[in-house]
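*** Query protein ***
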Amino acid sequence: MQNDRAQHPTQSPIQNPLQSPAQSPAQSLIQSPIQVPIRAPAQGPRTAHTAHTARAAHPVRVYDDTPDTDAVFRRIAALPDGPERSALRQDVVRAWMPMAVRLARRFRHRGETFDDLQQVAQLGLVKAVSRFDPSVGTAFPSYAIPTILGEVKRHFRDDLWVVHVPRRVQELRGQVRSADYALYATLGGREPSVHDIAVYTGLTVADVRLGQEALESFTAVSLDAGSGRSDDGRPLSDTLGGTESGFERVLNRDALRPLLRALPERERQILYMRFFGEMTQARIGLQLGISQMHVSRLINRTCTRLRRQVMADDTHDVTRVTTPTT
């Protein structure tokens, strides 16, 4: 089998002794993972870059989702941009996809759907595969895990806030939440007070309160969701008040009352017969001995004056209005 592989150099370098002819390299890696060997950085003059590498090359906990893709990364680094390099990167992304899903699962209880978390983690994996440099001597998980976790945390920080808040407030929220969890365990199940959290974190009481307010602003509840106070399944929108037109009528009536008292007797009588007695203009004219046209002009003129006075006098401090009688 080794001779056959030597005769086919174009075969993907992701190897698995249990691979069947029908399986792709990525599928075989996911099903039969191999532990990742941890290599020390190459010896040479110590620079800031090698010092960073030495810190990054810490032992990596081996899971069942850690395939051996070192040879593939070396081949990707040697290839120019093109279809073959893109195909190898896709194979590596598919091989490491279970690790991205596992990392996304850590955040599944923070108010975001797991499907969205997986997508963000997979985006971080794609970035890690694209940026990884095998010549540095760092194992891929040591580079990929912080990249994926950073992408997920950035998603929570920048994309999921109901109201955009400054970065400092988001950091206060994280400090307050961590302190709350830690103190709850040490205080025998008692809810920590604002003072407890301030002492634990070194923050001021005002900053602790600001962080607590930010905790309540992270997510919103849909108005279509149940209220949780009863079993009738009524949405929260049913508990919200609406616009009550009766209030406006009451306000207008109170505003008009002193203005009506200030009207001349005949104009006040015409308005009463027209709007409260529901009499026609012709009948009002017969009763008062004037024409229907004159009644119409008096009604329009009086209503226009009252409307202007109500709109201009928001304080309802009304002065007596006199109009010539005709």
Notes: Residues 69-159 form a domain with the Four Helix Bundle (Hemerythrin (Met), subunit A) fold (CATH 1.20.120.1810).
